[in-house]
Amino acid sequence: MRSLRIDIVSDVVCPWCIIGYKSLQAALKLLSNEIQAQIHWHPFELNPTMPQGGENLRDHLTRKYGTTREASIEARNKLTQLGAEVGFDFNFFEEMRIYNTRKAHQMLMWANQHHKQNELELALFEAYFCHEKPIDNESVLIQIAVDIGLDKAQCVQVLSDESWAKAVANTEQQWLQAGIHAVPAIIIEQKHLISGAQTTENLVNTLRSIAHKAISTH
């Protein structure tokens, strides 16, 4: 059994990030007799200057990328199909909004200290993509955290403490300086970079190859 450290740089409003993770999860399940993974999530904000309340997702994509309505519909259909293939149910809707995720990342960084980071990450993806939750809203974030067993009073403190916001910003800056400019970015053993959402088959082959090389060099 080979132990691998897997770092994932991601944002909770990035559909490709949850697709990529679900593919990774499936790959690790197939390799459960060969590899044991320690997963660590790291912050990346797609829209760090987004104001409270967010922006209509379709309007946002038009403004940022020039995406047409037809292209938006096609993209949502494709994402929904890819999500279904890896076991994630996207619920795109007409008035869907995109949000600032700084506070969500503060929570995730804190949850790591309580061994609840992976659970919170998945709960945030589901809240946003499946249940139409405004994940820049503190009450919503606190409820999500409490639902997975985190302490409410500590949640409130983390969300209001500027040092947590600075810690997120500093971590993001470190990843940018390391050359990570798009997500998901999956880093295996702190040296093998996998960019974008990969298929489960590709991930199985890559992980197996890295694990075997690691064993042969020991």
Structural class: alpha+beta
CATH fold-type name: Glutaredoxin
Number of strands: 6
Termini Cα gap: 14 Å
In percent, how much strand structure appears in the residues?
Answer: 5-15%
Radius of gyration: 18 Å
Topology order in helix (H) and strand (E) letters: EHEEHHEHHHHHEEH
Protein name: DsbA family oxidoreductase
Domain DSBA-like thioredoxin: 6-207
InterPro entries: DSBA-like_thioredoxin_dom (IPR001853), Thioredoxin-like_sf (IPR036249)
Pfam families: DSBA
How would you describe what is shown here?
This protein has 218 residues and is an alpha+beta fold. The chain has one domain: Glutaredoxin. The protein is built from nine helices and six strands, in the order E-H-E-E-H-H-E-H-H-H-H-H-E-E-H. It has helices spanning 15-30, 57-65, 69-86, 102-112, 117-129, 138-147, 152-160, 162-177, 200-216, and strands at 2-10, 35-43, 55-56, 97-98, 185-188, 192-195. The strands form two sheets. A four-stranded mixed sheet has the order 2-1-5-6. A two-stranded antiparallel ribbon has the order 3-4. Strand 5 (185-188) and strand 6 form a beta hairpin. Helix 1 crosses helix 9 and helix 4 packs antiparallel against helix 5 (117-129). The longest helix has 18 residues, at 69-86. The chain is globular. This is DsbA family oxidoreductase. InterPro entries: DSBA-like_thioredoxin_dom, Thioredoxin-like_sf. It comes from Vibrio ziniensis. Pfam families: DSBA. Residues 6-207 form the DSBA-like thioredoxin domain.
